[in-house]
Amino acid sequence: MTAITDTPPRTAAVDINDISKVFGHGGGAVTAIDGMSITVGTGEFLSIVGASGCGKSTLLSLVAGLDRPTTGTVDVWGHRVSMMFQEAALFPWLSVGANIEVPMKVNKVPRAERRARVGELLDLVRLTGFERKQPHELSGGMRQRVALARALAQDADVLLMDEPFGALDAMTRDILHDELERIWQEKGLTVLFVTHNVREAVRLGDRVVLLSSRPGRVISEFPVEGERPRRIDSAPIAAQAAAITDRLREEVSRHA
Amino acid sequence: MPDTDVRDRDRQVHGLDALELQPQRGANEVGPGDRARALWSATWPKLVAVVLVLAAWQAVVWSGWRTEFVFPGPDKVLPTLFAEVTTPEFWVAVQVTMRRALTGFALALAVGVVIGLAVSQFKPLRAAIGSLITGLQTMPSIVWFPFAMLLYGISESAIMFVIVLGAAPSIAGGLVSGIDYVPPTLLRAGQVMGLRGAQRYTLLVIPAALPMFVTGLKQGWAFAWRSLMAGELLVIINQQNSIGWALSQARQLNDADRLLSYIIIVLVVGIVIDVFFNWADRALRRRWGITA
């Protein structure tokens, strides 16, 4: 499929132009992001890593249009953007199927079509037949897959992910990496994936952007080498992750 | 990707799902015997409680604390109760009282929801009357009756007025805290999905607030029922038959058997409604997955 690292530059899906974000005023003002520019190509899987305080959640809110940058601009070129969080944030009173229907109700998709789409999306995340379950009946990994299906039900082609696998055990996380990679390729999504976990970033990303903390700035970018599907425990992934981790540690010690 | 790889992954995902799901312990094997046993284990403590109360009651009567004329035992009261429930007058009384209860509660519900929504929406309003709502909840509703009778005379409206004052604050309070405690993660998810305006309420805020709202309803009902009983004892409208009227009649005629019969009926109605609210509460919690 697409998304081999040495393909020519793609058209941009997301343009982040020299943005800054300041919370508060005067003496108590906190600069979360300062002069950050990132371009994400259409169909690219971009991993964003940084230590605490790198403004990554702020960054995703800005891209999602939930908030405005203090200066600079964010362009998504008419793409539809959806977002996933560390918590699945499913509505506990709705069944799995009804949860996936919510964004379609917002988009006024007719009922029959919604039903059909729910079936397709559940097949996609390998939860066929779980339509009538309640979220609390599922495991954490399954809930995240429902959240992914719900995000995709928004008909978005840009998917923002804020540490979506942070709360899962290693085994489940590995399998969800495979699943996310497969779905990203099948759907031709553009993904901005924020994580603390450098190996995860390298395992998944076409490119890894490393952010500084307080304020958040881009320190450097690392194109990731390696054929897909990748394995998180393979030697090339480990070696690239080690290099990025070194750089990240340097950044963290700067705050000592 | 080779086909075998795809199949492997499929098996891994399904295997992990199967392991992580809690095994359903005999969910499909609930026979009639099991159901009967469950019913019995839920019922016998209640039966024991009834027997204990009856025994204690009879013991007090036998102790000769009061003459049987003013404090009859269950052997007198229970037959009177059974005789009473077979008369048409009794059912008229129950009907009148329950109609008042439901009308009053419906009014309180409407007022409570409007106030609750307004308070949760407008910050200044919350500052102004938020604590007033809590204050009203602590007021014994009976103190409103003299004022209510001044406003509405000896009429059903006076009773309704007090029921609304008694129950609406609890209902509004339940709604406000339900809306306040909608988990922020859900609000954020809703925002990302583009839930706005009315849809934000119908699809997210109201269902999320429902469990606490039901708790408020339950409390509101308790206040409504108390206010109504107080009202029927105080505000006697043209000798109209009602449970409260039957109580005060029985007292005037020194008919202790009937008096105690009606007290039991008031208790039973309270318990029945409470069982209903508990059932609603449990059903909601089970669906929400917050059963302890």
From TrEMBL, chain A:
Keywords assigned: ATP-binding, Nucleotide-binding, Transport
Domain (ABC transporter): residue spans on this chain: 14-238
Record Gene3D superfamilies: P-loop containing nucleotide triphosphate hydrolases
Keyword RNA-binding: no
SMART domains, per database record: AAA
Transport as UniProt keyword: yes
Molecular function terms from GO: ATP binding; ATP hydrolysis activity
Coiled coil: none
SUPFAM superfamilies xref list: P-loop containing nucleoside triphosphate hydrolases
InterPro entries: AAA+_ATPase, ABC_transporter-like_ATP-bd, ABC_transporter-like_CS, ABC_transporter_ATP-bind, P-loop_NTPase
Name this protein carries in UniProt: NitT/TauT family transport system ATP-binding protein
Organism phylogeny: Bacteria, Bacillati, Actinomycetota, Actinomycetes, Streptosporangiales
Automatic annotation (TrEMBL), chain B:
Membrane topology: Multi-pass membrane protein
Ranges that cross the membrane: 47-65, 101-120, 132-152, 158-182, 203-224, 259-280
A GO biological process held by the record: transmembrane transport
Superkingdom of origin organism: Bacteria
Main location class: membrane
Compartments where found: Cell membrane
Keywords: Cell membrane, Membrane, Transmembrane, Transmembrane helix, Transport
GO annotations of cellular component type: plasma membrane
Keyword Plastid among UniProt keywords: no
Start and end residues of each ABC transmembrane type-1 domain: 94-277
Protein name: NitT/TauT family transport system permease protein
